[in-house]
Amino acid sequence: MSEVTETEPAAETAAPELTYLEAISDALRYEMRRDESVFCLGEDIGAFGGAFKVTDGFVEEFGASRVLDTPLAENAIIGAAVGAAVEGLRPVCEMQFADFISCGFDQLVNVAAKLHYRQGVAVPMVVRLPSGGGFSGGPFHSQNPEAWFLQTPGLKVVAPSTAADAKGLLVSAIRDPNPVCYLEHKGLYRHVKGEVPAGEYTVPIGEARIAREGSEMSVIAYGSSVILAMRAAEELGEDIEVLDLRTLAPLDREAILTTARKTGKILVAHEATRSAGVGAEVAALITEEAFEDLDGPVRRLTTPDVPIPFSPPLEQAVLPQLEDMKEACSELLRY
Amino acid sequence: MENGDAAVASARVREHASMPAGEHTGMHLTRDDRAGLFRFMVMMRTAEERAITLYRQGKVPGSFYDGRGQEAISVGSAYTLGPRDRMCILHRDLGAHFVRGVTPDRYLANYMGRAHAVTGGKDGNMHFGDRRLGTVGMVSMLPDMALVANGMALAFKMRGEDRVAMTYFGEGSTANGQWHEAMNFAAVYELPVVFVLENNQFAYSTPNELEVAGDLVARARSYGFASAGVDGNDVEAVFEAARAAVDRARAGGGPTLIACETMRMHGHGAHDDMSYVPPELFEKWEKRDPIERYAKRLTDDFGFEPDEVAAIRTEVAEYIAECAEKALASPMPDPAAATEGVYAEAWEALGDGQAPWSFWQQDGAPQGADGDPAVAGEPRRAA
Questions:
Q1: B53-94 pLDDT, tens digit each
Q2: With 50 as the cut, is the pLDDT of residue B26 above it?
Q3: How far is A301 from chain B, CA to nearest CA, in Å?
Q4: How far apart are the first and last CA of chain A?
């Protein structure tokens, strides 16, 4: 993904152009200014501004009391967020890398996700998860762990692919009364730019977005794979529809089935590994509900079931590349 | 850890001198308070005995877990809290639920998976917290709730409120990495949280020597906060230690670990025959039964008539019988409820707990009112 620079079409409003990363910061800053119950906590997010500088300048504006540099203890971070959320604050946790959620997993899946179901206690909190590979981060700084969360009822999961959605979904996540996993793809941070409405801007959780209209086939994707799909469609010059899921839990079933019924040929694409992932879920949904409308098998373009290797040629061999996307689309179009 | 009766009696509360206890002048337990402490302990034991019967009658799905022998800890500690304080209560701590206002019928219904249960049947046994009474219920993973209590305490501190979070764990929990995360996090941010450790000698079947390295009271000191070793079978000793800890937390003095020595007199669960426990250990601890000891103190030291003490037992027995009938009359939940409530529609504040200690009925008692927004979550040490 690091090779891709995508500029979204200019909107009609005079919205500033921001990178995906700046849009995340903008959303956080906007919410912290609007609502003093919103605060950030995580490792190195204070004076240092975070490993990726999402909270750069936040300590100066909001003070150390709302931009908490925490000990290196992911369960303590998530657990503290749960308690604070129950008591009426709106915590936004930063996992330095999405991979490290494994160290806070217990608090997330056993405490945060189940409290409302078990006891009617709402847990409004966000866990920001810098995810994805493409920069030789190796097995522990490149993962796309979203499928872990999809097996955990009670969590909402979002994964924006545009700067505007990065802002709108983060604002919505902060305001949502549930724990929301917010996957921000590191490869998009500085390579995706676009118009982002200034001030108040939300994108509803649970609604997919048609990123590109088409009628011959559909690519259903999210995160970095949306960028690949858009470029593949342009370069192939084919009539390909691209559906950006944006939210992975709860899935926008209607949007998925609508595009499936419209084009009849579906490629589900994601950077996460293949088995039992979002692609499998989307494919199952389509075959269960829209089988009669299909003109071919539902196909997947994903990373194979391997850890993400470090060395560039090895990493490129497993992460879906633009050529892989073009080939997968062409094959399905020919089917 | 050897605790002879005499040593325990002479050092009922062992505070570390370097950690000043909070000051509460003239706040003693009244006669009614003492009756209350006794009543809640008896209530816990009687309710748990009733629940065992229900379990044996096949009315409790799954297994059954109680805190027999540990009644003084949850009752004595929870008794110190004000209405706006918050708790995460664990599975040996039924007394704390009763102190905060959960009625035994809803506890028994929870064990039986009934609609009237605290969780409406969504979760079983002691896995409940009544949000209307300021409690966030436990999960099975231990000591997860210590980290959640930290979060509540963090919110109090950030908003400048003089409120306190209290939670429990056993010595088994101190072997888990999250315990260290919780202690360290609470200490770094000097959170108003009270950790009540119940060393009941066995983590399921694993004895102290295979579970705990070093001294647990000293461990807290190494995190830089106050700790106290307490006879966990002495309800007033627990109360005094908890009162000091709660005062300290409320005054901005940070966390405290109260390490209570006790003994789990029943198995980990009703399915556990405790064949791994040497019989002499039961005999030793049976003599220190917290309820019988306190009954004796009430008559010997506090001027209660034996009839008064007996009357409390009788009243509780009748009340629990009534509650059991009510629980048994509650229907099973509607299966349709199984798929409801996964997501919340809106955040709702926890309600306040019952605060039976006479202190909270006095004029001038802290109301947990909002204060000046503090240096919220400001680390105490310069970066």
A1: 999 999 999 999 999 999 999 999 999 999 999 999 999 999
A2: no
A3: 31
A4: 28
**What totals of helices (H) and strands (E) does chain B contain, helices first?**
13, 8
**b/e B182-216 (16+ beta carbons within 10 angstroms → b):** bbbbbbbbbbbbbbbbbbbbbbeeeeeeebbeeeb
d(CA B40, CA B75): 6
Architecture in CATH of A209-334:
3-Layer(aba) Sandwich (3.40)
Distance CA A163, CA A203 (A): 12
- Same fold for the pair A14-195 and A209-334: yes
Which residues pair with residue A39 across a beta bridge?
A: A91
Q: Residue B345: which of A86, A117, A177 has the nearest Cβ?
A: A177
- What is the pTM (predicted TM-score) of this model? 0.93
Task: Give the pLDDT score at B363.
Answer: 72
ipTM: 0.94
- What are the residue boundaries of the structural domains of chain A, listed by start? 14-195, 209-334
Nearest chain A residue to B339 by CA distance is: A117
Binary contact (B184, A106; C-beta < 8 A): no
Measured between beta carbons, which residues in chain A are less than 8 angstroms from residue B379? 64, 69
pLDDT of residue A7: 53
Q: Are A321 and A150 in contact (CB under 8 A)?
A: no
Q: Phi and psi (nearest 5°) for A262?
A: -75, -50
Instruction: Give one DSSP letter per residue of A138-171, joined into a string.
Output: -TTSS--THHHHHTSTT-EEE---SHHHHHHHHH
